[in-house]
Structures are given as structure tokens and as C-alpha cells.
Amino acid sequence: MKNRIAFLLLFLATVTNLPAQNRDISYMTSGGKLHPLQAIMDIRHYTIALDVNIQQEAISGYTSIDLILSQPTDTLLFDLVHLLTVNKITANNKAVNFFQKDDYIFITDKAGFLPGNQTIKIEYGGKPPVAVKPPWNGGFTWTKDKSGNPWVAINCQLEGAKIYFPCKDHPSDEPNEGADLFITVPSGLIVAGPGLLQSTTKKKNNKTAFHWKTNYTISNYCILFNIGKYKVVSRTYTTIDGNKVPMEFYVLEKDVAHAAHVLDLRERDTRILEKYFGEYPWIKEKIGIGQVPNPGMEHQTMITYGDPFNYVNVAGQDYSANLFHEFGHEWWANKVTNKDWAHMWIQEGIDTYSEALFFRELTGEKGYDSMILAFRLDIENKKPLVQGEEVNSGDTYTGDVYTKGAFFMHALRYILGDSIFFPTLKQLATDTKYTYNNFVTTDDVEQLFSHQSGKILKPLFDFYLRTTNRIEILLIQSGTDEYRVLSLNTPMPLPVEIVTDAGVQKIILDKKPLIIKSKTLPVIDAGGNYFKKIIIL
């Protein structure tokens, strides 16, 4: 058995010292470099049992973690925000030594932990961090609805689930056997959670416990719950493959009149998303929506919705970008999950691209083009989308993971053509190699599209995603009604449309000059298919 005490002491000497009672967690991120003590753990299941004290804005209870160790160790390491105090830990029903340091729990045993199955039960409690600007700056939101009823929401994508339960907080490891949540709240309130509701149990002191269970693998930041004076409005949805799935909206009592329309929109949006990305991913559980007091999030099987039932009109139909985008994450984030936050653009960019596909369905290619233009204009391009490997959520997260990621998908469509692009995109969303228990990286996406297209696309992926370069195109007048067109830095030969006095012609743009005849100044890439810079000489 390898002794890790020396390594542990070195690690403790380098971690940041945090105030013992500081509710500001703006420093906190998820992912990053995977600690060796966590690399040897395969998380299989979480059981979270908590009593929520709304008046005190506090939680208490335990989390039980089932895991498999790949090698012996004398120390186990879990993440938990320093605001919560651990009271007791047992390993396989045996009390063990532990200590908390900043946002970590160290569990030690001189006899060591052997390879194989381990069950770690951690009893804890305290006041979790309060969200500053949910869902972007996460934590708990303790508020009341307009009727004065308690309303509680949790958001933790960028900070990680460690803000409220002990876990291995890294996107590369999800509990393959799902999670159970036993959440106790004051009677009269309802808990909305992931998976399927197993039971409600009356408890002492006028409380009710809700047992939610998901059997699917699930990201840590989706293992959470919301509390409110909810009514459940439901119907049955039949998927594109003929499976029947419950569709449920946990809506505040005062807003029940809006519920049917929201479910109508959800049905329509599901049809569109299934067309491009395959059947709804969680057919054994539900299509859930939970109303929350902040913009929505992609919490698996219980997508949250925070718009006050405001819509824009698209081709005579109501549309909520928030409602659609977060639901698209059921495919892109929840089913197809990045292995590392370094590749966050995959789930955010492709999901944002799906918004353009919505407009394509309702308004045709012109509506699609208008969304692509909006994405391109919003690109800030301050740093690459992919900055290496083992990058934390804070360093990765920018607006460009949405807009530049989406625009890149459009450029890929233009280069490859619909007959290759759309089937390959659907394969990425449906092939078990990339979904559920498996994770994806940028290289996985590139290799799939390269294989299906028969083109070497790595230079294009690297150019768009690993640099902040624009394609620079020179347009040089070389004579009367004659122009030379070439690119200074194109990563590969690219098709491009040029508008001349004779109309539109498509050329292959390369670093070799191409002669264009036109009595008018040629317009290069008038459709805006590339992230580019035109230099006219």
C-alpha cells in the first residue's frame, strides 16, 4: 500500500486558506486538474438525505457515496464547501478519522482502503452559500413567491455540487448508477427533483420527506432540487420512437393558468429537437420543468424555467429562448457530456446552435441565417474556446462558448453540406460511444466529422477552437476588372461564395491566388459563413 501522507502534507501547504465563515464563493470553480487521490475513485451512486430549515437557511443530514477504488490508499478526498461542517464519517459502516481543510474533506485510515467497492457516509450540516446572481453565480436562493410562500432554488454549474453535498467534483466522473434524494421540507411545500418521485412521507414536526430517484448517470451540478408551493400539471408525451414519457410542470399555484401553454411549447420544442438529435434522452423517467425565481438551467429531467411567461413571436408562435435553450441541454450537456470543462463549447455551442435550427423549422433558412448573424456579431474572441486540458469552469466560461461555438457549427455545416453535416451531428447525439456513461472531447468531435466527411478537419477545428485567429482574406485589384483573391492563413482549402457583376460563384479559397473577373468590387463570403477579416488592397 503506497503511503500518501507526504503528498497530502504538500497539498495542504499549497491550498488557499479561506475564511472559516465566508459565504462569498466567487472564487469557487469546478473541475480543473484532477487530484490523484480522486483519480483512483469511480463514483457509482450518491444518496443525499437532507432536512431543509428554510427559516434558518440551513441544511442538515448526510450524503452516502458508493464508489470503486482502483488501487489501495490511506486517504480519500472529497469536495465540500467550507461553510458546511462535517460531524461524522463512516466507511463501510466503520467510523473513520477525517478533517476538513478549506473546501476539502480528507478521510484517513492507517489500515487503508483496499481496491474495490466502498461506501462512505458523511454526516454534515450548516448554512450553504447564497447565490449572488443565479444561475451564473451559484448557491442557494431563499426567497418567497408573490403569495408569500417560501421558494428555494439551487444553482451550481460553475461552482460544482460541493456547495451543498460532499462529492468528487469533476466532470469526468458521474455516478453511473444515478442518485437518490431524500429531502425533508415543511408540510405544504413541494420538492421538485431529478428522475422520478418515489414517495412522499409525513414526518414529525409538520414536515414531509420527498424521495426522488434517477437511475441514469447524471452530472453533479444536476443533482439538486427546488422547493416551492407547487402544483404539478402533467400530460403524456409520445416520443419520435413511440415511447410514452410523463411531461410534468412544477408550477407555482398562482401561475397554474400558464402551465398548459408552457407544456404546449415543450411538446413543439421536443419535436424539433428530436428531429435533429434523436429521441428525448430520458424516456424511462420524465420531461420535467420546475419553475424557479431565476433564469433557467439544464437540470436533468427537471429543467428549470424562470422567465415570467414572456415570449417573442416567431412566425405566429410563442418562443422563449430560455425555455428552449435549457431544454436543448437534455441532449447537449446531460446526454452528450464534456469530459473536461476545457471542452465546454461542445455542450454550450451545439445547444446554442440548436436555437438557429428552431428558427430554421419555423421560418426557413432566412430565419436560421438571422440567428447565425446574431451569433457572429456577439463573438468577443478574447481567448480560445479550448485552452488545453484539465481547465476549470471559471477559466473556460465566456460568452464565446455559446456564440463562437454555435457559429463554428454553422461553418462546419457550410463546408461539409447538409447531407454529411446533419447525419453526423445526429450520430454524435445518439451513438453510445459519445453518450450517457461516456464523455467527449474536442478531438472526439473532430474525428467523427473527419471520418464521416472523408476530410482532414483537425486544422479547421484547431484554428476555430484553439486560437483567436480570423481567416484573413486578401482582395487585390490586379488590373482593370481583375482581382486576385487569396487567404493569408486559411487552415485548409475552403469553399467560399463571391458575388461579382456576373452573379454568385463558389470558389475554393486557399493560400494560392485566384483570379476573379468583375466590373464591380467582388463581395467575398457575403453570406457570412466564416469568422473572417477582409483586407482590400
Structural class: alpha+beta
Remind me, CATH topology of the largest domain? Immunoglobulin-like
Strand content: 25-35%
Rg, rounded, reads 26 Å
* Adjacency order of strands in the biggest sheet: 5-4-8-2-1-11-14-13
Biggest sheet, open or closed, and with what strands and sense? 8 strands, mixed
Give the key terms.
11 helices; four-stranded mixed sheet; 24% helix; Immunoglobulin-like; alpha+beta; eight-stranded mixed sheet; 537 residues; single chain; Zincin-like; Neutral Protease, domain 2
Short summary:
The chain is an alpha+beta fold. Helices cover 24% and strands 35% of the residues. The longest helix is centred in the middle third of the chain and has 20 residues, at 344-363.
What are the SSEs and their pairings?
Elements: H1 5-14, H2 36-39, E1 41-53, E2 58-69, E3 73-79, E4 84-91, E5 94-95, E6 97-101, E7 104-113, E8 116-126, E9 139-144, E10 150-155, E11 179-186, E12 190-192, E13 196-203, E14 207-214, E15 226-228, E16 230-238, E17 244-252, H3 259-277, E18 287-291, E19 303-305, E20 312-314, E21 317-319, H4 321-328, E22 337-338, H5 344-363, H6 365-377, H7 393-396, H8 400-416, H9 418-430, E23 439-440, H10 442-453, H11 458-465, E24 471-479, E25 482-487, E26 494-500, E27 503-509, E28 514-517, E29 523-524, E30 532-536
Parallel strand pairs: 1-11, 17-18, 18-19, 22-23, 24-30
Antiparallel strand pairs: 1-2, 2-8, 3-7, 4-5, 4-8, 6-7, 9-10, 11-14, 12-15, 13-14, 16-17, 20-21, 24-25, 25-28, 26-27, 26-29
Helix pairs in contact: 3-4, 3-5, 4-5, 5-6, 5-8, 6-8, 8-9, 9-10
